[in-house]
Amino acid sequence: MKSIKELDKAYVAGTYGRFDILLDSAKDGKMCGEDKEYIDFGTGIGVSAFGACDSAWVDAVCAQAGKLSHTSNLYYTAPCAELAQMLCERTGMKKVFFGNSGAEANECAIKCARKYSHDKYGNDRKTVVTLINSFHGRTLLTLAATGQDVFHQYFGPFPEGFRYVPANDLDALKVALTDDVCAFMFECVQGEGGVNCLDGEYLRAAEALCREKDILLICDEVQTGNGRTGSLYAYSQFGITPDIVSTAKGLGGGLPIGACLMGETVENTLTPSTHGSTFGGNPIACAGAISIISRLTDDYLSDISARAAYLWDRLGSLGFIQGISGLGFMIGLVLSDGMDTKEFINACAERGLLVLSAKTKVRLLPPLNTSIETIDKAIEIMTAAAESIK
Ligand SMILES: *Cc1c(COP(=O)(O)O)cnc(C)c1O
Q1: Which atom of ligand 1 is nearest to the CA of 139?
Q2: Max Cα-Cα span within the chain
């Protein structure tokens, strides 16, 4: 009989470079493999907000699964309506469209911005300006939106209408915001691009420039959102108010869900039959998301920030770390010269700690409820891992 790893290699599309690790179950922020437990500082790329299988989330999801699993969007259901209300009341946004992934949330955001512009100004104002090193998804449209040349291969022709500018360069943005532009799209902290935190002054000036020309601000909070950076959404820490916010990853706590939040300017832009999704707003996924968002109270968000500050502090004192970037529990690490990121990540895994990479950096996305004790343990493992590959 073939092993699971052999089956996977034989039958699952070869799009992923997997670690040589088979995971079987999860409990209390730990992943259980074949022969060891792992502290999970990757959370399935920022998805398992309170750790995989956290008990409040499991209870919410199981209760909903036993009550009403799926209806399609032809009917009203409570979890969908209540989650939308929760997101709007917490952010001041007006309407929510639910999809199933980050890419879908961004598709909705871009479609919404283009239709807003079409309705008001006609057909010649469809360009979306995005940032170099951004990441917005894997569909053709969101690949086109992604400001990295490596993603613009093989699959063309890509949809037109994107222009890329360097982050934190206001002059370049000024030049790019010509009369054909309907929106400026960005991540407050670029995740896949290397955990690069944007400059607040730049974003506030960018917002002012966009307001002058009725250009919409689209904030991609797929990775930064839902408590990850210490606020419900990262943009609030940068002093800006986007017209459209897309989010996914941590929102569902482990089930696929994406959301596009629309502010006052665009609340009535998407009208019946202009957009849709069969699975979007699924009751089980929404019940899981309600269990996540309802725990992210202002008090709890301060608590996340305090524990994140402790982690930053501990990381800052490690001799093998040359630089730390990011915000809150979204952290990028530059290792000392000569230390290989991949080797370090493997050495951590061997010692029972799962971490991620982003470009050449090590990336940490720990569960939002990570305790001080677990942080200390993770620091110990990272220290031993670094020692082992010196
Ligand atoms: C992960 C990610 C996406 C894509 O999300 P999927 O759920 O994989 O489609 C989009 N934008 C950002 C900022 C992301 O981190």
Answers
A1: 9
A2: 66
| Distance between CA atoms of residues 36 and 21, nearest Å | 10
Residues with CB under 6 A from ligand 1: 101-103, 106, 135-137, 187, 191-192, 220, 222-223, 248-249
Q: Which atom of ligand 1 is nearest to the CA of 248?
A: 7
Which of the listed residues 192, 244, 246, 279 should we mutate to test ligand 1's pocket, taking the one with most ligand atoms within 8 A of CB?
192
Distances (CA, A) of 66 to 26, 82, 111, 254: 22, 18, 35, 18
3-state secondary structure of 3: coil
The packing angle between helices 55-65 and 283-293, to 10°, is: 150
Residue keyed to tokens 């952010």:
91
User: What is the rounded CA–CA span in Å between residue 122 and residue 139?
Assistant: 26
Tens of pLDDT along 279-337? Answer: 999 999 999 999 999 999 999 999 999 999 999 999 999 999 999 999 999 999 999 99
By most ligand atoms within 8 Å of CB, the mutation choice from 45, 110, 136, 142 for ligand 1 is 136
- Alpha-carbon distance of 50 to 17, in angstroms, equals 26
pLDDT 10s digits, 341-363: 999 999 999 999 999 999 999 99
Ligand 1 centroid–CA 152 distance in Å is: 16
pTM value > 0.85: yes
Distances (CA, A) of 339 to 201, 320, 361, 390: 34, 8, 11, 7
Q: Is 32 exposed, middle or buried (0-12, 13-18, 19+ CB in 10 A)?
A: middle
